[in-house]
Amino acid sequence: MKRMKLPKLHNQILIALIAGAIFGSIFNVNTKTLSISYKSDKVNVTETILNWEVFGFIKMIESPDTILFNSKQQLEIISTFKSLKSSDTPFQAFAVNCYIKGEESSKLPIKVFKEATSLSKEKSIATGIKWIGDIFIRLLTMIAVPLVLASLTVGAASLGDLKKFARIGGKTISFYLITTVIAISIGLLSANIIQPGKQMAVETKERLLSVYTGEVELKIEKATDYNIIQEIVNLVPKNPISALANGEMIQIVFFSLLLGLILSMVDKDRASPVINFFDGLSETLIRMVNVIMLMAPIGVFALISATVSEFGFDILQTLFWYAIAVVLGLFIHTVGTYSIIIKTFSKIKLRDFFKGIRKAQAIGFTTSSSAATLPVNMECCQDNLGVSKSISGFVLPLGATINMDGTALYQGVAAVFIAQVFGIELNLIQQLTIVFTATLASIGTAPVPGVGLIMLVVILKAVGIPEEGIALILGIDRILDMCRTVTNISGDAAVAVSVATSEKEINYPVMNKMA
Ligand code: ASP
After folding, report:
1. CA 45 to CA 115: how far, in whole Å?
2. Does 336 share its domain with 350?
3. For a substitution probing ligand 1, which of 303, 481, 487 has the most ligand atoms within 8 Å of its CB?
4. Pocket residues for ligand 1 (CB within 6 Å)?
5. Residue 272: which domain range?
6. How much distance in Å is there from the Cα of 324 to the middle of ligand 1?
7. Which of 222, 249, 404 to mutate to test the pocket of ligand 1 (most atoms within 8 A of CB)?
8. Has residue 21 been placed in a domain?
9. The CATH number of the domain where 245 resides is what?
10. Residues 470, 348 share a domain
11. In this structure, are 472 and 358 located in the same domain?
């Protein structure tokens, strides 16, 4: 009897991606429902209200103030609820001419929720399975911190001496900086040509600004502490164990590089057991990735379907030209710039390069996290592209932490977009300031979802664009984060291949066991 053969893992992931998107869009979150928890006679009740005609909040302050919404304003209602909650204003919520799920036969002329404790979209089956995806991301992220420590230490130690360390380090950092500057320039060009901000209607602008103000305040708060001198000081961990415990990537990178470098100077007998320990650890962690990746199709399916089902597609329409400017820029950089780099600095065929890293790209896309993708990227570069362990162990963890071309490109587009919406013309000096600050900001961006948006605040400040403007792009950030993470990790792989070729530390072709 013939056994049915399962498709290869990367094809399974691709199928999961597409199936997840379809599943998510079928079971998308109903925009006419709200799940509300409130206290009724001191008991916590959770109900789902449907098809309200009017939804309102009464602020219970000296002169009561009422805020009203119509049946189409689910997002606005949730965001107003959040900001009322966070400002500690006493309020009551109410719905007019609504239904309660499970009792659809009776229309309620008015329903008051005295002490509402939470208000959110109703969960769909697709968002209900998100936890499976969360486990998958956690498994990958769990590996990232020890992997950065182990592989960077071994990577730096195996470079042998200070001269080689400086040479390879210099090449790597130069590649990273140059590609980042090219990325931002492509972003600026794309935004200046497409001019997405000029296509936005005034009402849309007002609506977006009002929906997301609450969330924006939190992001601005997080970003205001940014100070370049302090950032440099913060590179050095006070305590490497606490840096590891808190996942402070850039501090872990600093410590591991130093540890590896000094190990290469310590006498062999003493250094070897330490290096062997980290070597064994990094090897084991990469093996662990192989096991975790068996779960990838299910994890990817769950994550994509939850994201798609929760995503408000109307926002995509509203920000269509902005999204196009970002995605087009990312595409040109990923396919264009990296192809030129691979062609110029390596002997790998472009097809093989992109085929070799597609698994990592799919994981970057679904997890939106360079850190979570690092283990997979290392596996792809070593097994599929033949990059030596010492180069991939050095270049990739460094890249995952400091090289974010996609993020920098997106920040360029976003800054120009917001300026255009606010009617600010950016001159050459301002655009160059964006190139400079976005390069620095992308180095400081933590390799986890959504941080690029927080760092954008720093760039907007530097050129005098109103920071509240990030409210305009918040609703679409998650999807663009997925796309920019693909570029971020592809850039790391392209540089790893180029540096490995220049150091003759590549064994190509090795495209045999690509799974
Ligand atoms: N999610 C991105 C990454 O991990 C960072 C960002 O742009 O927010 O690469």
Report:
1. 10
2. yes
3. 481
4. 368-370, 404, 407, 445, 447-452, 481, 484-485, 488
5. 128-513
6. 19
7. 404
8. no
9. 1.10.3860.10
10. yes
11. yes
How much is the mean pLDDT over the chain?
88
Position 515 confidence tier, pLDDT thresholds 50, 70, 90: very low
Which residue out of 176, 303, 307, 407 has the highest number of ligand 1 atoms within 8 Å of its CB and is therefore the one to mutate?
407
Omega before 146 within 30 of 0, i.e. cis: no
Three-state secondary structure call for residue 117: strand
Q: How far apart are alpha carbons 375 and 371 in whole angstroms?
A: 8
CA-nearest of 431, 428, 366, 437 to 408 is 437
| Nearest residue by C-alpha to atom 6 in ligand 1 | 452
Predicted local confidence at residue 164, as pLDDT: 86
The Å distance, Cα 180 to ligand 1 centre, comes to 14
pLDDT value at residue 242: 95
- The answer on pLDDT for 163 being more than 60 is yes
Per-residue pLDDT tens digits for 217-252: 767 766 666 677 877 888 899 999 999 999 888 899
Helix (H, G, I), strand (E, B) or coil at 454: helix
Per-residue pLDDT tens digits for 75-116: 888 888 887 887 777 888 999 999 998 888 888 899 888 888
Which DSSP letter does residue 311 get? S
* Residue 331: per-residue pLDDT: 98
Q: Are residues 237 and 347 in the same domain?
A: yes
Gap between the Cα atoms of 164 and 170, Å rounded: 9
Distance 209 CA to ligand 1 centre (A): 23
Q: What's the pLDDT score for residue 76?
A: 82
112 and 192, same structural domain? no
Q: How far is the CA of 446 from the centre of ligand 1 (A)?
A: 7
DSSP three-state, residue 347:
coil
Confidence band of 148 (pLDDT split at 50, 70, 90): very high
Tokens 């995806």 — which residue?
133
Residue nearest to atom 7 of ligand 1 (CA): 452
* Domain membership flag for residue 3: no
Q: Would 50 be classed as within a structural domain?
A: yes
- Give yes or no: residues 404 and 443 share one domain: yes
The total number of structural domains that make up the chain: 2
Q: Lowest mean pLDDT of 211-215, 394-398, 489-493, name the range.
A: 211-215
58 shares its domain with 139: no
